[in-house]
Specification:
With about 375 residues, this protein is an alpha/beta fold. Helix content is about 40%, strand content about 15%. The strands form two sheets. The protein has a seven-stranded parallel β-sheet with strand order 3-2-1-4-5-6-7, with helices on both faces. The longest helix has 18 residues. The protein starts with a strand and ends in a 7-residue tail after the last helix.
Length: about 375
Amino acid sequence: MKIRVVHLITGLRRAGAETMLMKLVGALDRTRFETRIVTVIERGPLAPDLEAMGIPVVSLDMRSKLDPRPIARLIGILRRLRPDVIQTWLYHADFAGLIAASVLRRTDHLLWNVRCSDMDFAAAKENGTAPLVRVLGLLSARPSGVIVNSHAGRLHHERLGYRPRRWIEIPNGFELDRWHPDAAAAARLRAELLLPEDALVVGLCARLSPMKDHGNFLSAIRVLRERVPAAHAILVGRGTETLAAKVAEMGLSSHVTMLGERSDLPRLLPGLDVSCLSSAFGEGFANVLGEAMASGVPCVATDVGDAASIIGDTGRIVPPRRPEALAAALESLLVASAQCRHDLGRRARERIERCYGLDGIAQRYADLYADVGSGPPGA
């Protein structure tokens, strides 16, 4: 008999947790697991992709935190589907899932999933989330367990008062056939951007957000350009196209290209000389690190979340909010030989294959679901 799993998530935008959910349900054995997805607020742009994979998606369409009807709908959905496992993703879904599972007396089959670490809610303009997280900490012993995708996330939430029955650490996983080195990518990218063949391209692939600290990155690029004239930066991600005025103000218009949101990252990433993560806070396991490393690209990252343990000895780690240090780390890789960067990228790829391949990560989730779902039938 199949194990029925319902995933509850705030929405299905193109972001880290949502992307990991889509990868996970696509990798699980359909002969063992029957999956449904419920969104709290809206369906989001990933919903059609999931439905094309044969995964049903339904939305509660919550418009107000004070409206009880979406929670009532969730209770009805869970009562009808009778899931063996209820897994929630992100704080608001954790809270909604706990209410519904408590009504149905199914908290032993509920798993929360924490995806960030030291989130600065005020800086991220998510002030209303901070009180909710404190409440979740007080209630954290109610679910069967709390999944975290980073050790840093676990430590931070312990400091916030989380005391679950058990922590389950499962990092993000990556599709090794989708993210891979491509020897032709470098020339292709430079031709597309009208850059010289010998340009040294640094990429920051991140949505525009205070957490991602694009200001830190641009300040580092301004320093780097004085030391490595061939360096050119690209910004990829939702909202980055709006940074033109800031880039011009910093005198970087000829040295930074803003590409906005792109759907062809597997094609772009292998063409970089170095991939950068400049975040100031909040990261747990940054997907872009795994994607770049799987693509054979060495990374320079700020010391946020689990970045240091993910990269290991295949790249560079610097303190957050230190553009001089970030520039120095980028310079150390760009002035090295192409063979040196290639060797680092090869080792980065091997590290992802060894530690973070999607098949192995999906198996860890499958084992967890089999364990949690082995109790009495759904309510």
